[in-house]
## 1
Amino acid sequence: MNVDYFVLTALPDESEALFKHLPEPRDLTEGYWISDLETEQGGFRSVLIYRPGCGQGTNAANSRTSYTITKYHPCVVLLTGIAGGFDEHGVCLGDVLVHGFIEPYELAKVTPEKRERRHPTESVTAGPVIEVAKAIRSTEWYKGIKKSRPNNRERAFPEILWRDRGVVGSGDKNLANRNSPERRYLQKKHKERALGFEMEGAGVASACKPTATPYAVVKAVQDNGTIDKDDPSLKDEWREYAADAAATLATQLMQKCSFFDRKASDSEAGMEIGKIHRPSLPKRLAVIEEFYCDREGLRIEVVKRSKQGHEVWAAFHTGIFVDEPGFYSRKTGEAKLTKLVLVCPGSRFLLQYSRMVAREKEKVTTEYMRNVIVTITGKAKDTKASVRWFDGPVGVSFWLVDAEHEDGWGYVEVPIAAIKSLEWPGFIIKKSTDRQLYQKFVDSFDSLWKNSHRPHANTKVCDCPKDARCEARQLAKREQAFRSDS
């Protein structure tokens, strides 16, 4: 599964603030929720959040981000929530920091003479997010904040703080001392460009680096990182407002930012405004290794590959495609069709299916398709293949070769209305390439097989109970409609 955005928060209250800004979030799995966010360009972007929050600290953020990138392959990662700000550099409570650089202040070499920090400043790579933030600074974006502002002593409304090469420190220490070594280090190294500090940005940066996943940090200031933050009368006064302000801006950035183009180049990781280049296509986009525009070229491939297989499971509408030399005939040894699911000849779906495949001046009748289904059923049973009839639409036609083996593969056909079935495109899937995708088709076939019924010995009617909805028995009254190929 691929998503457009993964928005990470550290604490549950940060996550809940974001949750309230997303339309109709849906519970996915393992604490993940997903929402479809409409953009200003008219499309929708999938937004994934981890609702419990990853927990404070760089290690927790790194672990959760790495796992999410591996499983969901987000195009962009956003880190949002609360942070501390440096009031001596003009940062006020409630302001939102959208910064371009992260300074990890924890890693250092300690000698008897000095403490030497040796970690380089990390550059935020989601440049378009920062550019959009700069563009909307002059708008009334803050009207989307749901929480009331605690007071207006410093400002009547929050500002988006972005400065040229603005830096925010990141580490596992929660600073509450104006004279702490970490605070002095940040201000000495970056001077007025140092905006504040938080605890997860460095972890996100290190997690995104191996896959070159673009990321940005959007956090609002809840305190100034001084001893005042522990004053009972001031503690957490701005917490809910800051979390809501950050969530508001993050949501608007995702709505306004144009989609991120992925560029398959191992040498380019540079940024352009409006585009994000990735070193390579995500693995999840490369599961389709072989694509066929029609069935003609596929016939050769089927025979060639089937010679190496042991068993074939197939699910088709009518099964006309399996009427190919070497596909199901065990006598030739070129294929081993063991399980075949076809649409029941008495299913009402055949009428809709015939209309879908009908073309101008060339109609495909339900009688013709019923005849094909019965003919293919008889031929398959002659080879001792197990055949089931499904009283409903099969969906897309597909077959699986050696589904229970590690080298299993399959073919998925894409039906297109009013186009000859011989011209329908399709693609090859491999278990070794994408086990998750392959398993979906295995599960689909198992479900079709379990919910299907066996044809009668004369292949004209099925063995389903008398009170079943299947209409195949009616075919016995219309024997003339079937012309078996004996």
Note: Residues 261-287, 324-335, 459-486 have pLDDT under 50 and may be disordered.
## 2
Amino acid sequence: MSTFHTLIRHALPYAPAAKPRTRAVLFFLFFGAIAATACNPAVDDAVDIDTGFRTGCLVTESGGVECWGENDDITQVTGTAEVASPIAGLSDIVDVEVGWQTACALSADGILSCWGRNNFGEAGNGTTDTARPAPVTDLPESIIDFSIHAFHTCAVDAEGAAYCWGRNEEAQLGTGDTTQQTTAAEVQGLPRVHAIGAGAVSTCALSDGLPFCWGNSEFGELGQGDAMASKVPIPVDAVTDATAISVGNAHTCVLSAGQGPTCWGLGIEGQLGPSAAPTLNPPIAVDLGGSSPIKEIHVGSTNTCARFDDGSVNCMGSNLHGQLGIGSAGNNVPLTTMTGVRGVLDMSTGYNTKCVVSEDGTAYCSGQDLNGSLGNGGPPDAGSLVPVPVLR
């Protein structure tokens, strides 16, 4: 594995905690946030949200997309966008995802458009040039699911075919080789699938309840309980009835009908629960608590969260920067309920941040605020241990 991949998957989650601030700085941060709130209204019409590396995006009720944070190639704002700003060229959008440096949005009629930095072709426009929002080249206009993580993107069409593009040094595109792709390339040797998740250097998809994974498996990402990589999809035979999947840096979780989640891969930060091994975990049952059925599971870089039918959210794992929104920070956090927001309808866990949408359309984020990644208009690098509203 390259040094760069190691930095993505190890150095970033273990960043040192910030030093305590002085009273003067806290005074400035507190009243600065009040001033920003007074000038910028909170987003109150969000229906979908996602957060990636220091950048977040949401979908509005009208089908528009708004983004904030560090990556001006995504936000289309010169410099840091400290509040949500509209993205030109997108309409009738129903879903958005944000990766390391690129974002993608799916329209109601099944067209997937991507934009942002495009060093490895992850925007899928046939080049490695910075991209404006445009449909992915060679991808059918009938997409039902998609996922973007570090430097590669994948999608599934209405016929069940899976496509991936972008960086491929670890064979994460499933094309049987390690050749980079700047346009959509069909995954080889995969049966019809209905869901897909892209990880840092691996990918998994679901076919009639059976997960298939491919790429790097240094920490057990392929669900076999070992570190054997694969250039083509291989089944995770221990799981047979999965209905949804979420893939993080080096761990994966699935939901099964009438059952709790099953997860595998890296567990060193507590993201698989207290009984998991530090690494190379085969599929194991994971308890995410809750008093109502799980509606959604979302795997972050080194944590795992579940959204329940009653609108509550439980999380466990890394919380070094307060990204879990529980009012405190720490590592290897046991199962805890997010505070301050009721009736959560959508959620996303990204790089040291977590964002949610409440039932009234308000968007909230918590955690580290590197260059506007919380979208609350606050002073640079002022994080929050509890969810704060995204402003526009």
Note: DSSP finds three helices and 28 strands in the chain.
